[in-house]
Write a structure and sequence with these properties.
Helix content: over 70%
Order of helices and strands: HHHH
Strand content: under 5%
Shape: elongated
Number of domains: 1
Oligomer: single chain
């Protein structure tokens, strides 16, 4: 008769551990902050590259494509943090940089 009494606490513990699944947000603000800072740094590097006067048209257009991709990556990270008022301006700056880079590409293509 002792076996059921030993097994009962073990059974209760197993049910408690298995039965309490929680919906936990897996985002970590620090990870998003690091990714946002990384995207901002890449945008700054692309801005410096686009500012080179001797950049070939094909290279200028590749910079524009990269700039827009990084800007959208940045904006998706910003969208994941709607409670942060400091982030939307960074998204807006990224999109403005994308627009400027596309304009630079179009100017060189159209002569």
């Amino acid at each position: 008769m002792r076996v059921p009494f030993v097994a009962l606490p073990l059974l209760v513990v197993i049910h408690l551990l298995a039965g309490c699944a929680k919906n936990v947000d897996t985002r970590v603000a620090g990870d998003d902050d690091a990714a946002i800072d990384g995207a901002s740094a890449r945008l700054e590097e692309l801005r410096a590259r686009a500012a080179q006067d001797e950049l070939a048209c094909q290279d200028r257009c590749e910079v524009a494509t990269s700039t827009c991709g990084v800007a959208e990556e940045l904006c998706s990270l910003v969208d994941r943090n709607p409670d942060r008022d400091d982030l939307p301006p960074r998204c807006a700056q990224g999109r403005e940089q994308c627009s400027d880079a596309r304009n630079g590409c179009a100017r060189c293509q159209n002569g």
